[in-house]
Amino acid sequence: MTDPGAGLGGPALLELRDVGKDFGSVIALDGISTTVRAGEVTCVLGDNGAGKSTLIKILAGVHRPDRGQVLLDGQPVSFSAPRDALDAGIATVYQDLAMIPLMAIWRNFFLGAEPTRGRGPFRRFDSARAKEVTRRELLAMGIDIRDPDQPVGTLSGGERQSVAIARAVHFGARVLILDEPTSALGVKQAGIVLRYIAQARDRGVGVVFITHNPHHAHPVGDRFLLLGRGRSLGDFAKGEVSVEEITRLMAGGAELAELTTELERPLPQKDGS
């Protein structure tokens, strides 16, 4: 296992050092350390109850850690609200995507940050510019939308995820946190989302990919933080761990072996044996 502060990808953009969070007597996270670098994907893996949601909320400014440090560009930071994290360039795309299904793609793309033209009482929403920028930014991510006026609810799950990713990158995200973006998708749509994660990475964004699926994480990941019941099961560079090892660590090696033995059906005996 490598030192999470070291690596070939240059200095850490975002770093966690022994981060812990309690809710009353419940230890939600304890001693969590990892790094996120520009142009790399850090995958955070764990089963339900592993602490992934708490970690997201600390990075997104919803919760403050009770122990440890969060560093941005090598400097300790403490966010008192999600707006602080967003202003610092940390954008979070949650599973619900914060989109309005009946509104057009371009309206969702600029929701809350609409471009305008004119001044004072003559200021108007610049819809032509919004449509042009939406189409251009989506194309830059490899997304060729049919019509920016179509309701975002008519897009597939993978396409909606791609719009959310492109929106975050356009508005200056240096760190992009993706909360289980492939969990509700089929194989083909999940593959589409993984391709757009790679596009964001290749544009120099530091990506935090939260997932419980090692087969989705391993193709795009550069670093893997494994969580179990709020504690780190390991922080690995890509060459140090396989899909099978990640699966074994997440499931618990002994428990998985015992379950496999229990579920395997014995081969039928041939007559006369």
Structural description of this entry:
By secondary structure, this protein is an alpha/beta fold. It has a domain at 14-101 and 172-262: 3-Layer(aba) Sandwich (Rossmann fold), CATH 3.40.50. 33% of the residues lie in helices and 25% in strands. Helix 6 (187-202) links the parallel strand 9 (175-179) and strand 10 (206-211). The model has no long low-confidence stretch (mean pLDDT 87).
Short account of what is shown:
By secondary structure, this protein is α/β, with parallel strands linked by helices. The protein is about 35% helix and about 25% strand. It has a six-stranded mixed β-sheet, with helices on both faces. A four-stranded antiparallel β-sheet has the order 2-1-4-5, with helices on one face. It has a two-stranded antiparallel ribbon with strand order 7-8.
Descriptive terms for the model:
9 helices; 4-stranded antiparallel sheet; ATP-binding; nucleotide-binding; ATP hydrolysis activity; 6-stranded mixed sheet; alpha/beta; AAA+_ATPase; 12 strands; Rossmann fold
Q: Find the CATH topology of one domain.
A: Rossmann fold
Average pLDDT, rounded to a whole number, is 87
In DSSP terms (H or I, runs of 4 or more residues), the helix count works out at 9
Q: Structural class of the secondary structure composition? A: alpha/beta
Can you count the beta strands?
12
Order of helices and strands: EEEHEEHEHEEHHEHEHEEHH
- The rounded distance between the terminal residues' Cα atoms is 49 Å
CATH class group of one domain: Alpha Beta
State the helicity in percent bands. 25-40%
